[in-house]
Amino acid sequence: MKTLIIDDNHSNQRIDKYLKKLLCRAPSSLIYKMLRKKDVKVNGQRVKENYILHTGDVVDLFLYEDKFIEYTDPTTIYDLHIDFDVLYEDKNILIVNKPAGLLIHEDINESINTLANQVLTYLYQKGEYDPKNDLGFIPGPVHRLDRNTSGIVIFGKTMQSLQDLSLMMKQRHCIDKVYLTICKGYLDSKELIGYMKKDSDQSLVKVVNKNTPGALTMHTIVKHLDYQNDYSLLEVKLITGRTHQIRVHLASVGHPVIGDSKYGDFELNKMIKKKYHLDHQFLHAYKITFTNPLGSLKYLQDKTITCPLPSKLNNIKNQIFYENA
After folding, report:
1. pLDDT at position 172, please?
2. Measuring CA to CA, how many Å separate 126 from each of 122, 123, 189, 195?
3. In the predicted model, what is the mean pLDDT of residues 201-216?
4. Distance CA 100, CA 88 (A)
């Protein structure tokens, strides 16, 4: 028999979901069979699959130790170099500055050196996370940035903070996310509303008509900061959070982000690369504000975190807007 005591990182979830994460190598049918046959007890009592776990619950699994080891898969902690900067951290959340070029999650080309794995390395080295002691729970990011977009990424360090952050992201108007970018041409301050649809085959997003089946709303607010040499420096606030939203939305109104290889002006990008050595989109997640934090994170009300432009992007900005102004 295996006995587990539920801590804060594993409470407030259904026991079947907890067991699926804990026994991640076991088939779901086995987990529900254990629940039906009373091979799972909580505080000495049989429970149904929809039982909500609470901190301090004692979970008994009638499972041999060798089977428990076989069915679990502790997260691997890699000895990775830490490429991110910490912008803010407390017991619940970690906010970091992701450099351009670093994936948040693994893909077919890179499975180890990701921002998510680097954060696990960082927390493990601090003694705040040990996968052997936290089976079934992994601290993680609650939103994404494209590989070549730099700036702010928020991580939840506890189950409760992950749940609260995820709810805040879904409800919108809880966390304001603002980006800095440079686009082609003169673009004044305005509110943009459009519609998009993913093209998974080409890993692209396409602007579509409102009535297109599967169309999703894009809502973007643009604030004009400066204009020089036929480029606009913009502060862009996301209302919705669609894939590639800023890049595709600005391109759709004729003002693509400079350096953008998917949606940009390809001839302009060649010149930009030659003159400024920029080989990716000029897009940086530079500010967040907790405007309506929920649950365990209410203490963050009105807190703003800023992230300065990387030196490379800052130098390009200064060359375009200030050296010959």
Report:
1. 80
2. 6, 5, 44, 44
3. 88
4. 19
